Predict the structure of Protein kinase domain-containing protein.
Amino acid sequence: MENLPYHKNLIRLFLLLQCSSLLLLSSAYTLPDKYFINCGSDSDYTVNGRTFIGDNNPNFSHGRSKSVKDTHTSANTSPLYQTARIYEQPSSYELKMDSNGTYVVRLHFHAFPSSPNLSTALFNVSTANFTLLSNFGVRNISKSPFIKEFLLTINGTQFSINFTPSPDTSLAFINAIEVFLAPESFIPTNVSHVTPSGSNSTYSGFLPQLLQIVHRINVGGTELTREQDTLLRNWIADDDFLLIRDAANSSFKGIVNYQDGGPTQYTAPDLVYETAKVLNTNFSNITWRFNVSKKARHLVRVHFSDIVSISLNVLKFNLSIYGKFSWPINPYDIDMFKLAVPFKYDFVVDSDDSGFMNISVVPWNDSLKTPFLNGVEIMELMKESDWVPPMQSEQNKTHLYVIVGSVAIICILLAVVVIGLKRWKAKPTETLDCKSREGSGFGKVYEGTLRNGRKVAVKRSEPGHGQGLPEFQREIEVLSKIRHRNLVSLIGYCDEGSEMILVYEFMEKGTLRYHLYGDPKGSSSRSELSWEQRLEICIDSATGLHYLHTGVVGGIIHRDVKTTNILLDENYVAKVADFGLSKSGYLDQTQGTTGVKGSFGYLDPEYFNCFQLTEKSDVYSFGVVLLEVLCARPALDNALPREQMNLAEWGLSWQKKGQLEKIIDPFLVGKIDPNSLRKFGQTAEKCLKDHGIDRPTMDEVLYDLKYVLLLQQTAVHREPYEDSASDLPLEIPLPVVQRLPSHSVPVEEEEVPILSHDGSSTTASEVFSQLRIPDAR
Ligand SMILES: *[C@@H]1O[C@H](CO)[C@@H](O)[C@H](O)[C@H]1NC(C)=O
Ligand SMILES: *[C@@H]1O[C@H](CO)[C@@H](O)[C@H](O)[C@H]1NC(C)=O
Ligand SMILES: *[C@@H]1O[C@H](CO)[C@@H](O)[C@H](O)[C@H]1NC(C)=O
Ligand SMILES: *[C@@H]1O[C@H](CO)[C@@H](O)[C@H](O)[C@H]1NC(C)=O
Ligand SMILES: *[C@@H]1O[C@H](CO)[C@@H](O)[C@H](O)[C@H]1NC(C)=O
Ligand SMILES: *[C@@H]1O[C@H](CO)[C@@H](O)[C@H](O)[C@H]1NC(C)=O
Ligand SMILES: *[C@@H]1O[C@H](CO)[C@@H](O)[C@H](O)[C@H]1NC(C)=O
Ligand SMILES: *[C@@H]1O[C@H](CO)[C@@H](O)[C@H](O)[C@H]1NC(C)=O
Ligand SMILES: *[C@@H]1O[C@H](CO)[C@@H](O)[C@H](O)[C@H]1NC(C)=O
Ligand SMILES: *[C@@H]1O[C@H](CO)[C@@H](O)[C@H](O)[C@H]1NC(C)=O
Ligand SMILES: *[C@@H]1O[C@H](CO)[C@@H](O)[C@H](O)[C@H]1NC(C)=O
Ligand SMILES: *[C@@H]1O[C@H](CO)[C@@H](O)[C@H](O)[C@H]1NC(C)=O
């Protein structure tokens, strides 16, 4: 509790400074905080970082309605589906909107046992000009909970969702509501218009008011849950839509090179672009068949990323709709120097009266015969209805305009974030409620709560001597330029004289180090992370670092990669934090003259000795992190005998003896597949090479880690053969790691990494590295 005095100071600080310059960061899109509503509930519930606010309070304007609770709550039902709001007469849920644009609107339905009986409900749901659902009831629900999703253009300050129960049952219900702004230009304005007879024309000024999501497919991969998606979408696997299943095999490669001007992770998450279906030899095309409404107009979005080719500019094919219209696909139109660059096409397609739509990929004669597809979305354009809003006379007018939780700082923040970089003057009363959490390199970190209940982390510079100010400025400079799922994001900051405060997203689960071997100061309450969880954390952090090194801004060296700078959110998604020491290799010419900075135990020997600072210094530190994750001990522990003190040295000595398993975390003993461990050891060893030039790049590390995870996961599935490594290559149902074109040479068994019969994975990794695409940059 040594930090308690800061707690009070901090609140005062906010009051006194009046934060005349709490600067807000303009940045790319992130998923907004509102509206996520837990209908009929008193309590909030968080899904994937977004809090569904219980609406049983006067801040919500939900018209004439009541709330009901599940009378037989079972522990495995999400709290979202244990309560509902019911309407026994026509009435409306009102939301206050603060920007015009395209919104994602999701309505959640789950009929739980209650009184009145929700299974008897029958109702319409509409907005000002559209009927969203008509004659809707549980008979329409094939699986429960049922989530109906729309893209809706909202223009105005008020958004109403009208519930109209049928006169027979007088009952309507809703369990949860999501209404949030989609990324800018989410719906293109110029698209090709395709008719069933195959004619196409350019459609400019395409401005649909309402789209209903009909299909959202992750081709070549598994179902993706809402938790795995950047916009809380659900993607399903494509297998059931294939006309001829044998015509295609799944392909996987764990790299996505997002490019400016192309899709982002919000267009579709990495997991969609990392998998594809690829045409098999002896087949002439892959065709998927989707049920759609007859004679309706659809927006069809097809996602591609060339994870298939082994060299550039060799593959072209056609995308065909209804077998009549075809469109040339050239994966290098967007970036001819890189593979695995995501791109998408949108088409407005009129359906015929068959009730389905065929989508195919078809090879060109003079090209490699490996057309592929990564994802498909089909959305139906809804027509305006002649619906007339019900009279609102029975309602108390003032209630209509009650704002939903909008006074909280964060809402204002978001509004401004959308507009751009602006100064915002906080009212003295808009304080944060803070408590001390954890020390960090350049200041204390506090846990804070904004008035809307959103938790944030607050970092304050050491008061008094202005220590650490350059690091704070550095951090603001870096974080205001970049935004990535695996980098902690800055929400705002306050800069006043020698005082500085940074406000970050709150990372519920704290540091990675804490989860590996507890608090260094004693209380060792560590959680027991499984090997898969640890690998996923490593993959997340490697993704974040890869982005720093090569992303939009690029050339940023973190310089202080360590397990206390890797933070975990409530779902154990890892994010890299603390950019106070980071350097941009392109801009900063002073490197080498400023003295060595970083943390002992993690320092790149080359940098330490020669002041040679490159991205490879981060790779070295990350190698130490990998060992820490495996062995669950600190990078440097002076209490140990000399040869064990430095984890990098100690770990490497065991790795070189081929006995790394002797020093792993006792909790993991017997739980790691030997091949997975071997590959992991090799990856760490490569990162820890003395010379930067011998170390892999971060995306190579990322690729290896994904392979390590795959080895572990497939090991689980081949349990009966667990001990006979010699059976390995033929037994693993691996997704295709890399497909070679038919005319390329010498690797047999092209779909499966080869392990030699004694199970030694040198062979495997050699083969694997042959399969790796040479980076063309
Ligand atoms: C939405 O657009 C209308 C007209 O285009 C404008 O009057 C209104 O102020 C806009 N609302 C917001 C929140 O920008
Ligand atoms: C609720 O209604 C459904 C459909 O009408 C019926 O099958 C079910 O038995 C009812 N449940 C109760 C508890 O009355
Ligand atoms: C509904 O349609 C009418 C007429 O087309 C239009 O004036 C009005 O702005 C629309 N309302 C909304 C909320 O889009
Ligand atoms: C629900 O089912 C009924 C009858 O099967 C149908 O008329 C209605 O359009 C369906 N509603 C929705 C929203 O699918
Ligand atoms: C929004 O509404 C205003 C009038 O209410 C209209 O002038 C404007 O064109 C609308 N904007 C869009 C994008 O529909
Ligand atoms: C629901 O919508 C359908 C079709 O739009 C309409 O025929 C029906 O009368 C509506 N029901 C109610 C209760 O408004
Ligand atoms: C859409 O097409 C129109 C005319 O065909 C053109 O002026 C406009 O620049 C295009 N917009 C985009 C975003 O390509
Ligand atoms: C129609 O599609 C073909 C490709 O199949 C393309 O070459 C042509 O330019 C398109 N026409 C229009 C008007 O978009
Ligand atoms: C594709 O998958 C099938 C089994 O579904 C397998 O027999 C075949 O070897 C795979 N590869 C190719 C190139 O067909
Ligand atoms: C493709 O066809 C040839 C000849 O018909 C056959 O020998 C070969 O086994 C087939 N390949 C696959 C993968 O089915
Ligand atoms: C796909 O191949 C089948 C035969 O296997 C053929 O009937 C169909 O026309 C092809 N579709 C396209 C779009 O080429
Ligand atoms: C309602 O909003 C006010 C002002 O934003 C806030 O102080 C209060 O805590 C909110 N009430 C609930 C129950 O969320």
User: Anything to note?
Assistant: The mean pLDDT is 77. The first strand starts at residue 22 and ends at 24.
